[in-house]
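Holo prediction. Input below; ligand is coenzyme A.
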Amino acid sequence: MSCTSLTFRRPISDDWDRVMAVMPEWWGGRDLRGMLPHVFFEHFRGTSQIAEHEDRLLGFLVGFFCPDHGDEAYIHFVGVDPTWRRAGLGADLYRRFFALARADGRTVVRAVTAPVNKGSVAFHTSLGFSILPGDAEVDGLPVTKDRGPQGDSVVHFELTLDRGGA
Ligand SMILES: CC(C)(COP(=O)(O)OP(=O)(O)OC[C@H]1O[C@@H](n2cnc3c(N)ncnc32)[C@H](O)[C@@H]1OP(=O)(O)O)[C@@H](O)C(=O)NCCC(=O)NCCS
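Structure of the complex:
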């Protein structure tokens, strides 16, 4: 089955329960649910996405257009069902977000991830994101200290949107 057979839609409030139910497994046992409270499924639906096949949740993206930075958009969370990884779904969700961001006049997309999340680092760099300078290094990656859950370090990504492609 390819991504073309999936349904993409805006989240509704009830999707939050479905996302909460899969997050620890999809994040390999890391429990980041506290960073994605229900408010994101109330007030950021227009810039977020659900990917599903029939009734099965296969992926989601939660993002928003930054109110304080008129040229920027921010991707807060993306997740893909482990059985669907490396099939282009994560990239598809990002491209859909990029299209929305462009249409709103946004030229820069930002995201962060934990340095331990090597898959996420590889995913973002493969999509053309740059890793921004930080104030420390973890495993050779520039990180910013004390910005993640429980004071962890985070890697900051930035992508400048071109007019058509990325
Ligand atoms: C990160 C994540 C969303 C990627 O989703 P995906 O659908 O597997 O990504 P894609 O298939 O679109 O990958 C696009 C490219 O990114 C790179 N990539 C993605 N995952 C990778 C991994 N684990 N290791 C190395 N490169 C990877 C590859 O270059 C890939 O292209 P290729 O498969 O043709 O080589 C998914 O692994 C996931 O849900 N991880 C757990 C949640 C998470 O960490 N989210 C990000 C932080 S919020």
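The chain is about 25% helix and 30% strand. That is the main takeaway for now.
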